[in-house]
Amino acid sequence: MSNPYSGYGNGNYGGYGNNGGGYNSNSPYRSSGASYGQFTSLRAAHGVLASLAFLLFFPAGAIIIRLLPSKYTVVIHATCQIVGYLLFTVAFGLGVYIARSVNFGSFSLINQAHPIIGIVVWVLLIFQPILGLLHHRYFKKYKRRTFWSYAHLWLGRIVITLGIVNGALGLDLANNSQSGLIAYSVIAAVVWIAWLGAAIYGEITRRHKAVPDHPPAYQDSIPMAAQQSYGYNYRADHPGHSGDSSRTQVSDTQQGLPEYYGKVGTR
Is the pTM of this model over 0.70? Predict the structure, then answer.
């Protein structure tokens, strides 16, 4: 069936009555509780709140944690994500109300791609803060990424991309003007590319500073300068590695190795 938003009146939304207001008696619009003017206001609020979530707060939080490392970065990141989640939850609630309360004859809003993707995105977002907490907890414990880290990262990337694309689908469903759809697409593309660039930059920077997942062999962890300064002989003191049957008595200078570590800061 064709889009019910088109064909009635000269509204900014291509809808029923001038400027999206009023009610055209020839239209198939029916609502269980909202006039058409109220419906268009709810629809506009739904679009604005969802756009703020996916074009501002979610991407900003992801970009900040990659480009502006500081002791406050995690707090700023979490704040952006929480605000975005709350905004989208309100937008989601408005969308569900609109889809359930309004019908256009035999045309059902709830069966369209935009609301279906919106439902999927909102459900996936429920798990994101949980994964984020697990990622933060185990990253602090192991000093490296774990399964929870990758789950949090990739779920976020999938959800943000779906949310941005779904905004365009929503404008198309609402039969918004072509200029409005183009403006949204340009802004969305700029935001998505900036967010993707920050993610790539963050990964490159992280790999350059990467720490091995496992500690080095004991003899490799001792700086050569320390071995030369203290006359340390790993093979003599560790007969299992050299084939010697006897163990050399550890000298006082060798016992000073921890002091050397403290000076050079090697870990």
Answer: no
